[in-house]
Amino acid sequence: MTTEIAGTRDVPSWRLLATLGIAGAVAGLLVVLVQGWAEPRIESHRAAVLEAAIMNVLGEPARYDTLYVAETGLSRRPAGTMDAEADRVYLGYDAGGRPVGYAITAAEPGFQDVIRLIFGYEPASGNVLGMQVLENKETPGLGDKIEKDASFVAEFEGATAPLAGVKAGAGVGEAGEVDMITGATISSRAVIGIINRRLERLDPLLRTYVAEAAP
Amino acid sequence: MSAPATRREDLARGVWRENPVLVQLLGLCPTLAVTNTVANSLAMGLATFFVLLGSSVLVSSLKRVIPHQVRISAYILIIATFVTMADLLLAAIVPDIHKALGAFIALIVVNCIILGRQEAFASKRPVGRSALDAIGMGIGFMVALLLMGTFREILGSGSLLGVPLFGSGYEPWVVMILPPGGFLTLGGILLFLGWSRQRRGPAPKLRHWPHGVTTGRAG
What we know:
The complex is a heterodimer. Helix content of chain A is about 40%, strand content about 25%. Chain A is an alpha+beta fold. Chain A has one domain. Chain A has a six-stranded antiparallel beta sheet with strand order 2-1-3-4-5-6, sandwiched between helices. A two-stranded parallel ribbon of chain A has the order 7-8. In chain A, a hairpin with a 5-residue loop joins strand 3 and strand 4. Chain A is extended. Chain B is an all-alpha fold. Chain B has one domain. Chain B has eight helices and two strands, in the order αααααααββα. Chain B has a two-stranded antiparallel ribbon. In chain B, a hairpin with a 2-residue loop joins strand 1 and strand 2. The two termini of chain B are about 35 Å apart. Chains A and B meet through helix 1 of A and helix 4 of B.
């Protein structure tokens, strides 16, 4: 039943090298072909997810602009070279062309791994407009409620920065209060901290840009 | 054994009697790690099935070309190619599931069910029989994953395929979708299978070892 396997006898080393060399080349070619097909789809999916998130946290604006963050302020053009990793924010406009606020992405370590999120922010009032977690590896069933628990996500809508996490139900009604998730205090605090620290750096830039844009 | 009987045997063996997970106890790492929902189990099962079938067919058809001394490297190269393709295809077609499975797709490369089938079966048998064996083992792996995923999703999230089963009063048994829940579920299933085997009467005469058994039991 068992067929004889090629090469139970001695095989010259060049044949071993040639076999693996050819196999490697064919494997590489296949992977490149599949990658060529898949890459644009993966990229467009990523872009669609980001766009949906921008729309979501800004409350469905009519359109939005991409602005690049430089040391001194925001600009429509990336500073220097066109860098795919360049830091950027998204300024949304309502149907009448008035700015409604910025969508800002941010990422920092949470309880288990980096939490990546996006939030809407309106500099004139200092209000957060909404928050959506884009990527998290927090504990399933507990920490991942920062993404899945609708009531926690809703806490951010209309809260005034800087945010302060309070135990659920223990708030005294201040504008920056966000009820944290019972059993996921560290993840909740991480989300709040990520937003506060990101705004600490960006807020002055956002305010000056609004002043320039609306003379 | 007549030819059709052999074929049926090649196909059926892996599904239950020599199930790669439940009997041979191979490939436990993905079994424990990604079975917290039925959808994840299904995607992992399908990806592994695709890799196993592709590798078995290719290894079996190339068995005369690949020199004995470099066969393991060649198998790994073939498996890795299929895994990379599966990884990219999942990312392009079902991005959400790809995100949920994370690194475990790439780790199919070191799933010892796959390398085990190449070394123990596909490298010594005709293409047709190797394909049948791969299909059987692939289905067996999927059966095990779905069994785990169903238990864990119902108990740990109170849902099946994302559809809530119980009212809002149900408090999910969260530990079941965490790693300890994987061990508990697998242990429970193996305990039940062992118990029911014992109940069926005295153990049958020890037959030959399952085809896929290798000395290492990791991964």
